[in-house]
Amino acid sequence: MCLVNSFLFVTLSLLSCDTDTKIEPIPGQGLTKAEFLGRMVVQERYWRIEEISRQDEDQIATVNVREKSTWLNSYYLNEVIPFVAVQFGRGYFGKGTVTESQMMGAYGNVPFGEFKCTVMLKSTQESGEWTWDNDRKAMKLPLPKSLQSLAGALSGTDWRPDSGYVATEPAPLFRGVEEARRAASSERIRIVAEEQTTDGKITYAFIMRAAWMTDVEYRDAEHKYGVSLY
Amino acid sequence: MEYPYIKYITGTPAINLFDAMNERTFTDKLFLLIVSILFLNGCSNYKDKQVVPPETLPEAIIKVMSNAYPEATDATFQAIEKDKLYEVYYKLNGDPFYAALNAKKILSVYRMHGALPDSMQQSLPARSVSGGEVDVYKEPVPQLINPSVFYARYNWNNREYLLTWTKYNPAGNLYKYAVQLEPYFKFAYIIGKEDLSALPAPAVSFLEREKLRFATAKVSINEKNEKEYEVNAYTASSTSYDFTFNASGKLINTVYRAEAFYYNIDEYPEKIQNFVKGSPAFASMKILEGYKFSDPIGTGYGITLQGTSENCHLVFDQDGNFVSMTYNTGI
Fold first, then answer.
1. ipTM computed for the complex
2. pTM value?
């Protein structure tokens, strides 16, 4: 009887598989450079700050950006972090664009869901061009101004890093809005900036979470209203 | 001048044919001009052409033609899709023309010149794609004004391309013409968002699955009477993407949901590497951008190459076989 049930279960499972349109994202491990870039360079996705960490040798401090922190004052927590939205665009000859906009909507460590969001179009500015660092085997980017100032604030010095890296792990998972919607789960990358000090190296990591923008409406020239899958 | 499929019979105004339509009897007298119709058997096997009696030429097709060109003579119709899509070679004031039409309207018209005039000999494709053979010189009707365009069929590397010359404004331009090569088609027409159902079913399902908003499509018909669809659609966040589907709805090319971006030929599958590296035309060009697309309805590769004053876009299938090339330069 047990065997019959198992057989029935397997049969039903097989029948329910929709093999024609099944699109499974593959995990980030072992991605080639080309595949990593394929996941990174997508027009409809903004990267928002979920968490920030500071690593000094073995000591790691993590900032929950939705709560008061000893690392960052209220200006950064209320006026900078909630608005950060970074995009990676296509480009030629192995380079592409990094742009930063101000967005209102979900950010920080909240459960996955659909949230109303607004992009302030006039705030959009190009930070520069991303490139591929062959030695590090990672994407190198000019740090957007907001991340630059946050790194400086965390450092407590006048250090302002020009560039950072997108860590190879975690890699983005999805290549389109509908893929993200079907998976109904969050995806993240880590943008890393390194400060060389006399004692060694301090690493600041911005854990950036994908906000897929959909259902967009342009009601005026200054705002892009929509829904983010975050 | 000779054109394929054309039978000229002089002095028989096509208007007679169209007037006769209302009598619902197509007598031999009225068909002094020969209307030879070839139709697609089952819409799939274009090779299996049959000549059918002239009586089966749909009245709606004759009406569209007679309304548009009442003075046309020597009309020779051929079915591309029986009852739906036809092409016709005809004459106006003795000059040869070609039109494509459906039961509602004329879709495309060309004035057929045939051989390339001497004035254009200096403007043949040069650089990496020189040395091809050119014929079927034609221009659109009505000719576009500013810039005007001219077309020809260009056989290069054993493939046929549509060669398009777009005349530059002479002021301040280094070149006289922008020159483009793309896979050859006899004619093309644009459909809009109200014609979504004209796309192959898998393409429609794909757009629905991806929640893409269909904007327009260019439907082109090649010499085998096969259709290809260049679809423009945009996402719910207003990003515009292009998709190429073949007649059966297989996805042939898109950068949408690119699975990978390539900037070095060595990153491509070996077969594509060998094709590009082994080609005198492409080997020395630089990769502007390359990508792999992958979807249940079609997987393949694209590569945009740039040379000196020229660039081209190559498409390969899932197994790395060469599918198509588009090429641009200035002459």
1. 0.85
2. 0.84
